Amino acid sequence: MMPETLTADQILEAAQDVLRRFGPSKATVVDVARALGVSHGSVYRHFPSKAALREAVTRRWLDRAHAPVALAAEADLPGPERLRNWLATLFDSKRHKVLDDPELFATFTALVRESSAVVDDHIAELTAELAAILRDGAEAGDFGPFDDVDRTARAVFDATNRFHDPAYASEWKQDGIDAAFDAVCSLVLAGLRHRP
Amino acid sequence: MMPETLTADQILEAAQDVLRRFGPSKATVVDVARALGVSHGSVYRHFPSKAALREAVTRRWLDRAHAPVALAAEADLPGPERLRNWLATLFDSKRHKVLDDPELFATFTALVRESSAVVDDHIAELTAELAAILRDGAEAGDFGPFDDVDRTARAVFDATNRFHDPAYASEWKQDGIDAAFDAVCSLVLAGLRHRP
Questions:
Q1: ipTM of the complex
Q2: Are residues A180 and B158, on separate chains, in Cβ contact within 8 Å?
Q3: Separation CA B50–CA B37 (nearest Å)
Q4: How far B179 CA sits from the closest chain A CA (Å)?
Q5: Smallest CA–CA separation between B174 and chain A, in Å?
Q6: pLDDT tens readout for residues B38-65
Q7: Which CATH homologous superfamily contains domain A3-48?
Q8: Which ranges in chain A are annotated with CATH 1.10.357.10?
Q9: Which residue intervals of chain A bear CATH 1.10.10.60?
Q10: Which of A44, A93, A173, A174 lies 20 to 30 A from A148 at CA?
């Protein structure tokens, strides 16, 4: 490949392959450059360090996984249905990630753990979507009222973590996991319901 | 020590010390016997295998950590206060375990992961306490009514796992963790509240 035509996205794609093949502990920038047929200098022109490259790959992976969830956040539904649909979409997207390609999921779970900034940004993005759903629902009289909608949004995120935190990935194909998800959703939705 | 005076509890105490000192991957029955000044046969007279001994140590550690929680389950309080107090006691007992002796906590977290039967029994015990609190609260008109109180008890357990699952231990000394606990408790309690 000609170095001058190299895009950041091509590097990230190659880096993801290299990370999957060699594992996060062994993959190097030189491996990525070799996979692309360029010098490691060409990679460093886009990403100033190995850490920056790893973080960019991790963010890209999370962003892609998050696309259907962001779409669900915008769904034109009454508050309770919109929240349940958002939580179900989040659970499904994580569950598919791990079942479709467990190796890549393990690789990225390790990479995500490496960068607390990436985790914090990811959680902030998800809880902001939750807060918007709660705010709209409260305006429509379905939820709340809330003293602190951001705090409640984080409580909803925390209360459902068995169904989105990769630490629980091994439980996501167990019998009864969908019933457990429904039970937690119903409990959370009952807790959010508007009581005049 | 005279082998004939050796009790199971002395063996478990010594085994806990050995596990802490050598780590779960290296500790052997011979190390435990040596610490007690007996032959490994004397240990095997009480525990038929290394796995049985490890499981017994793990169960004893969990039982001891659980004592104040079991007491809180029996507290003579109205349903909502009893549940909040039980959840706070569970969180406190786990948090103290990790802050008081992080090394022992890590050792036992690894041992607990080894035995899914121990984990399942521990969760069953905790959710049975929760179910009793919910049942009493429903009778008093504070909670429910519930279609399936055991399912709801498990939902409460799942919804609060950020505050009792050792996977989150690293977050238990963060600023704001108590506010986060309160927010989840309030959400869960609102979800359980009796609505006539």
A1: 0.90
A2: yes
A3: 18
A4: 9
A5: 14
A6: 999 999 999 999 999 999 999 998 898 8
A7: Homeodomain-like (1.10.10.60)
A8: 58-192
A9: 3-48
A10: A93
Q: Please answer whether residues A31 and A18 qualify as being in contact, where contact means their C-beta atoms are separated by less than 8 angstroms.
A: yes
Check CB contact of B194 with chain A, cutoff 8 Å: no
**Helix H segments across B115-159?**
116-139, 149-159
| Location of each CATH 1.10.357.10 domain in chain B | 57-192
Phi and psi angles of residue B143, each rounded to the nearest 5 degrees, phi first: -125, 165
**Which of B158, B160, B163, B192 would you mutate first to test chain A, the one with the most A CBs within 10 A?**
B158
Q: What angle do CA A112, A115, A121 make, to 5 degrees?
A: 85
B114-149 residue pLDDT tens? 888 888 999 999 999 999 999 999 999 999 899 999
d(CA B18, CA B28): 8
Contacts of A93 (CB under 8 A, 6+ apart): A65, A66, A68, A69
CATH architecture of B57-192: Orthogonal Bundle (1.10)
